[in-house]
Automatic annotation (TrEMBL), chain B:
The chain crosses the membrane at residues 16-37, 119-144, 165-191, 211-230, 237-258, 312-330. GO terms for molecular function: ABC-type transporter activity. Keywords: Membrane, Transmembrane, Transmembrane helix. GO terms for cellular component: plasma membrane. The keyword Acyltransferase does not apply. The lineage of its organism: Bacteria, Bacillati, Actinomycetota, Actinomycetes, Micromonosporales. It comes from the Bacteria. This is ABC transporter permease. The keyword Calcium does not apply.
């Protein structure tokens, strides 16, 4: 079996099926694959109910899979999880702590349980900005503060792999920026970070690579740039000096074989190999182009397109209404 | 060992457990204080006063009997005669020795005879504390997400649950032994001040020790049951609900239904019977329905004896029946 030594987390063909008398059979994970390389900040994206949290819980040994293989730091899990757990820090879903304990108590109890020096408790409390509230009971904390505490608990072990499920949930804008900076610092220190989030702008800013999951299967993966490039169209936006000229200009461009969509104050043109050809055609007929710009897709566009979860006017999308991809290719361990 | 230490610290930090322990100790203290103030030391003067009181009571009885006999004689040949026996000589007063001096003695605490029976109160209260502590210790961990956090650090489920249980039971045993020592000392003091410590032989101490051990076993079993039930339901309320359900539905409803159906030895279906048998070594249930009361002289009702052996096996079986599924579900069920 070929295994890339730099891969910190590898998942192949992961399956999890829930059966209930009322709801029948539901495949939460349907042959899901994922690879996270060492030192990366990896975004893990998917609509609600797509299988993100199930994947993370399965990797962490909280849920038993019905099929597939997983490795963390080169060791098969869940069999070797006790050996690698000391090198994996994680928070899964919303942060949950005993409300009557203080942050310091919570972390020191975890440190004791994991054999971590208690001096580390103060360090991580400082790192996540909870130093001055460390003695307060957790029940007095806001959601954002609990989130910081959750990140602190995950960092307590000084892990090689950090798995964070929605770490920015409940954080204020300053907190989100601090979290972004923290992720960058951790990655720079050599830590590998898996980040599940719905704040796609953040993911695009801080992640090196992404995996997108929909209905239990991987629909896209790779570096952020590659995913954006492979899913961007060659559409260009054209503005004219006079908005009244748009219909006539659209006719001219359509005449040369392009597809044109007339918007309020601009045209969207696709199907042309050379965008400059638009300038030439319009200039020949005396229409002056004021803007000619390629339409760059961002991660949110790609996500909505790949998962089929873009809002449709007048329709109310239900959870689980997302794109199902074809059957997974077998035996692509480490791809 | 680090996990055991952490779990011991966690146990000590739990508020509900602290409150339960304090409440249990206050109740035990109240029992001891109550016993102290409701007993008094017997002196020769106390005995003399009791004897005088017994004599006064006997004389009262003699006077009453004389008056009744006179009324009986007067009623002969009247309609009132039916209220008296045909032979008025049958109306007699009791003999002096039948009015016992002990009836007029104040309560006094005899360590030799009475201390053993206090273990039942001790065991019942501490068993309740252990049950609540056991249930809360693991139940709150599940409902607050603490168990999931812990398993992210220690992904060996049975080891984690087992260590939690070991920490709980260790401190339940240590605490119970300390409180048992204080309990014994308190009642020894009560006996010295408000009763007697006479005839407390090594054999008596051996009996006290064995009863104390059975009390400890009951407390430990209650702790395990609370822990296992809360672990099964993944919530403290599961254990407390089960306990309330057993008491209300099973004990009261079954008790009433069996009583209405006049089931023989109805008490054999009730838990307190087995707890009492466990602590007192023997509990005799009498079936008064089998007693023929139509004739003079009364009767001897049918009896059923519950021994501490029966209770012990039943307690062990209950603990195993709840603990094994709790361990199995811990190992098998997803944590979501």
């Amino acid at each position: 079996m070929m295994r890339r030594m730099s891969a910190v987390l590898e998942i192949q063909g992961l399956e999890k099926t829930y059966r209930s008398r009322r709801r029948g059979v539901r495949k939460a994970l349907d042959g899901f694959d994922m690879v996270v390389e060492a030192g990366q900040v990896h975004g893990f994206l998917g609509p609600n109910g797509s299988g993100k949290t199930t994947t993370l819980r399965t990797v962490l040994g909280l849920i038993k899979p019905h099929g597939g293989r997983m490795t963390i730091l080169g060791r098969e899990v869940p069999a070797s999880l006790p050996e690698v757990a000391g090198q994996v820090g994680a928070i899964v879903e919303s942060p949950q702590f005993f409300p009557h304990f203080s942050a310091r108590d919570t972390l020191s109890l975890l440190a004791d349980a994991g054999g971590v020096d208690r001096i580390r408790v103060g360090e991580v409390l400082e790192l996540v900005g909870l130093r001055d509230r460390a003695k307060d009971r957790v029940k007095t904390y806001s959601l954002g503060m609990k989130q910081r505490l959750a990140v602190a608990s995950a960092l307590l072990k000084n892990p090689r792999l950090l798995i964070l499920d929605e770490p920015a949930n409940g954080l204020d804008p300053g907190g989100i920026r601090e979290m972004r900076s923290l992720m960058a610092d951790l990655a720079a220190s050599g830590m590998t970070v898996v980040l599940s989030s719905h704040i796609l702008g953040e993911i695009q800013l801080i992640c090196d690579s992404v995996t997108i999951i929909s209905r239990g299967r991987r629909v896209a993966h790779g570096s952020v740039a590659d995913v954006l490039a492979s899913n961007s169209s060659s559409t260009i936006r054209v503005r004219l000096e006079a908005v009244s000229d748009l219909p006539a200009a659209a006719q001219l461009i359509t005449g040369v074989g392009a597809h044109v969509s007339v918007e309020n104050d601009h045209l969207l043109v696709s199907g042309l190999d050379r965008p400059a050809f638009v300038t030439r055609v319009l200039a020949e007929r005396g229409y002056w182009v004021s803007e000619l710009a390629p339409m760059a897709a961002d991660l949110e566009d790609v996500f909505l397109q790949l998962t089929g979860t873009a809002p449709v006017e007048g329709a109310h999308r239900q959870v689980d209404q997302s794109v199902a991809v074809g059957a997974p290719a077998a035996g692509r361990w480490g791809q | 060992m680090s996990l055991f230490t952490a779990e011991s610290r966690r146990l000590a930090k739990r508020r509900l457990i602290r409150w339960a322990v304090v409440a249990g100790l206050l109740v035990l203290a109240a029992v001891a204080v109550g016993t102290f103030f409701t007993n008094q030391k017997v002196s020769p003067a106390t005995v003399a006063a009791a004897e005088a009181e017994a004599t006064r009571s006997w004389q009262e009885n003699v006077r009453y009997a004389d008056e009744e006999r006179a009324r009986c004689e007067a009623a002969k040949g009247t309609a009132d005669a039916g209220n008296f026996p045909p032979d008025c000589a049958q109306i007699t007063a009791p003999a002096r020795e039948e009015v016992q001096t002990e009836w007029f003695m104040p309560a006094t605490f005899d360590f030799r005879d009475q201390f053993d029976s206090t273990w039942l109160v001790f065991a019942a209260i501490l068993a309740l504390v252990a049950f609540v502590a056991g249930a809360s210790f693991v139940g709150a961990e599940w409902s607050s997400g603490g168990m999931m956090n812990l398993l992210l650090w220690r992904p060996r489920r049975l080891q984690v649950l087992g260590t939690k249980l070991a920490a709980l039971l260790t401190w339940v045993v240590v605490g119970s032994v300390v409180v048992a020592g204080l309990w014994t000392a308190a009642f020894w003091f009560i006996a010295l001040q408000r009763g007697t410590t006479a005839k407390v032989t090594p054999g008596v101490w051996q009996s006290v020790g064995l009863t104390g051990l059975r009390a400890l076993a009951l407390i430990v079993a209650a702790g395990v049951l609370g822990f296992a039930l809360a672990s099964l339901g993944r919530h403290t309320a599961m254990a407390l609900g089960a306990a309330v359900g057993v008491i209300v539905v099973v004990q009261f409803a079954v008790g009433i239904a069996l009583d209405l159906a006049e089931v023989k030895f109805m008490e054999a279906w009730l838990i307190p019977t087995y707890i009492t048998a466990w602590m007192a070594k023997l509990y005799t249930i009498e079936d008064y329905n089998s007693c023929d009361t139509s004739g003079w002289g009364g009767c001897v009702p049918a009896k059923m004896e519950i021994t501490w052996h029966t209770s012990g096996w039943l307690m062990l079986a209950t603990v195993v029946l709840v603990l094994v599924p709790a361990l199995w579900t811990m190992k098998r069920r997803d944590i979501t």
